[in-house]
Design brief:
The protein is mostly helical. Helices cover about 75% and strands about 0% of the residues. Keywords: Membrane, Transmembrane, Transmembrane helix.
């Protein structure tokens, strides 16, 4: 298993698109720093490092898009290139091969999240004054990253399922992004108008910060155990469907 994961990492790292993603994260966060610097300078405001990192956390959806792109192509690209046959002749089960790809997808999403955070820190140190990641602002940063990564984790599972089912990278990535964004918008709209059946939607339940003291839940009657159940049910469906299609199809053809 470890060898398979290492191999997947090597294939991912050797792609030009991987380097482009990290460069894009660096440039985008730099752009945010320059914009924030210009705004605060003109307004005569002194921004801090934690304040800038808190600002950039509002744009973590960028990480979600990149993670979905990686997960949506990690299986499908093997079929498109015909390299799936080379994988299947190895003395490893299909389940093991698919698991290595799924775990690699999760690792990649974590690498992108870490890169976004680190570049935010780097540009924050260069352009803004110091400050400590404690108190309400620091807590808000960790909550924002935690909530965003839970959403990313589920979107990765969804895109991975699409990659296994359709075996087409463009379709898997496109659907993964469109459905993911659309589902979050739908959850927000149904919550605004209190349409109760929206309680079962995945993205009405991924923001676990709604259960913190003083926060209001998306829908009346929601509880933390209920949200965890909804999240687990969706995860099992996404991963289970991916496994079913990968194992049952004649993938060698």
């Amino acid at each position: 298993m470890l060898n398979l994961i290492q191999n997947e990492h090597m294939k991912w790292f050797m792609k030009k698109s991987t380097k482009v993603v990290f460069l894009a994260i660096a440039v985008l966060t730099l752009g945010m720093a320059l914009i924030m610097r210009a705004i605060t300078t003109n307004a005569g405001i002194t921004e801090t490092l934690p304040g800038f990192v808190a600002f950039t956390s509002n744009f973590l959806i960028i990480v979600q898009f990149f993670a979905v792109a990686a997960a949506g192509s990690i299986v499908a690209s093997e079929f498109e290139k015909g390299t799936i046959k080379l994988l299947l002749i190895r003395p490893k089960s299909r389940s093991t091969i698919l698991l290595s790809k799924y775990l690699t997808s999760i690792f990649i999403s974590l690498y992108y999240l870490a890169a976004f955070f680190l570049f935010s820190i780097i540009w924050g140190i260069i352009f803004f004054s110091g400050g400590a990641f404690n108190g309400q602002e620091g807590q808000g940063i960790w909550i924002a990253y935690g909530v965003s990564y839970l959403e990313t984790f589920m979107m990765v599972a969804f895109a991975f399922m699409l990659s296994s089912v359709f075996r087409n990278s463009a379709l898997a990535v496109g659907l993964g992004i469109v459905v993911g964004v659309g589902a979050k918008m739908l959850a927000g709209i149904l919550s605004e108008f209190q349409v109760q059946w929206g309680i079962i939607l995945l993205f009405a339940n991924t923001n676990l910060s709604q259960y913190m003291d003083g926060n209001q839940t998306y829908f009346p009657g929601m509880t933390l155990p209920f949200s965890l159940l909804i999240i687990i049910a969706h995860l099992l469906f996404f991963v289970g469907t991916a496994w079913l299609f990968f194992l049952k199809r004649d993938v060698a053809n």
